Amino acid sequence: QAAEGGAEAWAEFLKVLELYAQEVIGQAEALHLVQDLLGKQTELLAEFKALLSLKGTADQLGGDLWYSMPLSEIDFGQCRKCTPSYRALPKDYLRPPCSERSLLEHRVLNDTWVSVPVGSEDNYSFKHMRKNQYEEALFRCEDERFEVDMVIDSNAAAAAALEPLAREVRALQAAEGTRGGERRLQYKLDKRALSVVHLNAIIRIYGDHGAEILELLKKNPAGAIPVILKRLKQKDAEWRKARQDLNKHWKEVQEKNWHKSLDHRSFYFKQADKKQCSQRALVQEVKERRADAPPAEGPAPAPYHMRPHLTLDFPEAEVHRDCFRVLLFAAENSSLSEADKGRVLRLLRVFLRPFFGLPEEWVPERDAAAAGE
């Protein structure tokens, strides 16, 4: 606040800095406004000019620093914005060079605006979502399908790129044959004719010998192109047939896991059931219900009589009959030995039936004989 205007001039100075930081005004305008504010403070004005001259100088700021700095560390708060999630890169941010762009590409491609996370998406990632085993099976199936499709498509793209080159080679060979071998025509492959995707497809079909094939393609394209094209077409037919066979397997996986994958709460339900059905949890629940139960009416029982802590009613007795039938059917049609079948039946007739007070005819004697009792 050493300027002549005091606090008011200091506030105006901060406004100028804010406008310059938001790229509303340029260096010349900012310097002109600050010069009016500082007045005769020549030393402050000289220091401000020195700081302003450093702004945007790649040599003094270190151009390599921008390339090594991730976008997450750049402060986009003062940068221009066109939507809530898109910000403009700082003007002094060095753009990486991109050669061989056409006029249309220079006009339509974006080199200025970047997407920055806004709100909760800043610390959210899809990998944090818990997936059940059925959903994971669907994801694996989808990954396999995507990988196979990408391999087939890249292989087909490489074959399509080699087709015109093969026609050129055949035309040159035909022209050379008509001249009676008078002069050999040299065919040179343009390095821009095949992209990285095409070269990777060629390496994929030749495996460990992929590098040798690429070297041969570079040295003798006229001899290598027809052979590589034939191999690409052969692998294309094989992989498409294999995809048809895999589609049946993928369909079974989808049908088997689709409906179960929609249950995103099963993991938590299983954890809760395991905890609530443990011995300690059941005993604790009985004690709590006993403590909360109202006092029983009538005379107190004798000390030697056992008084239950919890009494439950089973009005639907037919449910137990159905359970007995299911257990008897399972025991009869299982691989248990005759002795084990007899033990299962004795448990039903001697313990469970009297425990629930059920009629004796619910476990018939003929089933007992069939079970080996």
From TrEMBL:
Gene3D superfamilies: Paired amphipathic helix. It comes from the Eukaryota. Residues 78-179 form the Histone deacetylase interacting domain. Its main location: nucleus. One of its GO terms (molecular function) is transcription corepressor activity. The lineage of its organism: Eukaryota, Sar, Stramenopiles, Ochrophyta, Raphidophyceae. This is Histone deacetylase interacting domain-containing protein. It is found in: Nucleus. Pfam families: PAH (PF02671), Sin3_corepress (PF08295). GO terms for biological process: negative regulation of transcription by RNA polymerase II. GO terms for cellular component: chromatin; histone deacetylase complex. Keywords: Nucleus, Repressor.
